[in-house]
Structures are given as structure tokens and as C-alpha cells.
């Protein structure tokens, strides 16, 4: 089935970007997504505190899966978190895809003088580039 959705969460835990690639079949509302993502932000912060130190990366949550979905998270050096949801049968490396999305974020969002990093991302060129990279 492929990639379901991409979410970008600010350092403070606010949702700054979301893009769904398949229609919602689960009945999850936009409000439910906000609750889930803020919960993820809290769990990420907690896991980051208990993660072993002294390794190359100390990010707490990198990947997890449920009965129907797998997810990958990339934390940027500035504290931004990118969360990619995909079906269990998706074979591509989600961490590599997130790295590509981060490169697109740097090119299309960070280099724009009109963008405040803590505000919602409204960059059509970024959205189009993400769709193309993720195969949609």
C-alpha cells in the first residue's frame, strides 16, 4: 500500500505540517491526529531521556509498528520531528525517505525568507516535491 502520511512536529510539540497520501479508512479525525501526535511528542521526549548515552545517536524513538502500520521518526538538529507512517508491507527504508524529506525541507522551507520555523508550513513546492519523492 505504501506511505500513508507525513507529519512534521515543531520542537514545542505543535503540528506544523501534515500530508496524507491515502484516504482515511479508520475514521480518525484531524483532532484525533493532533491528540496522537502530541502524545507521540511526549513519549519521544520521555524516551529521549531514558535512551542510553554515549552512542552516535541518542534519539529515543526511531521506529515503531502497530498491527497495521509502521512508523519512522527523524529528529533534526533543531528539534523538529518528522514522522512517516506506512503500511507494514512497505519495503523501502523509511529512515532514508525521511532523510530525503528533510533535505527537501531544507531546500524549500528553510531557505525561504517568508517562513517562520514554528509556524505551519504552507509551501506548495515543498508539498509537490514530497509527493514526488514518496511516489505519489
Automatic annotation (TrEMBL):
Question: Which Pfam families did the record assign?
Answer: Sybindin
SUPFAM superfamilies tied to this protein: SNARE-like (SSF64356)
User: Where is it located?
Assistant: Endoplasmic reticulum; Golgi apparatus, cis-Golgi network; Golgi apparatus
Q: Which InterPro entries match?
A: Longin-like_dom_sf, TRAPPC
Offer a single GO CC term for the protein: Golgi apparatus
Sorted UniProt keywords: Endoplasmic reticulum, ER-Golgi transport, Golgi apparatus, Transport
GO process terms (BP): endoplasmic reticulum to Golgi vesicle-mediated transport
Q: Give yes or no: UniProt keyword Disulfide bond.
A: no
Q: Which domain of life is it from?
A: Eukaryota
Q: Assembly state and interactors?
A: Part of the multisubunit transport protein particle (TRAPP) complex.
> Which family does the entry's similarity section mention?
Belongs to the TRAPP small subunits family. TRAPPC4 subfamily.
Q: What is the designated name of this protein?
A: Trafficking protein particle complex subunit
Species of provenance? Kipferlia bialata
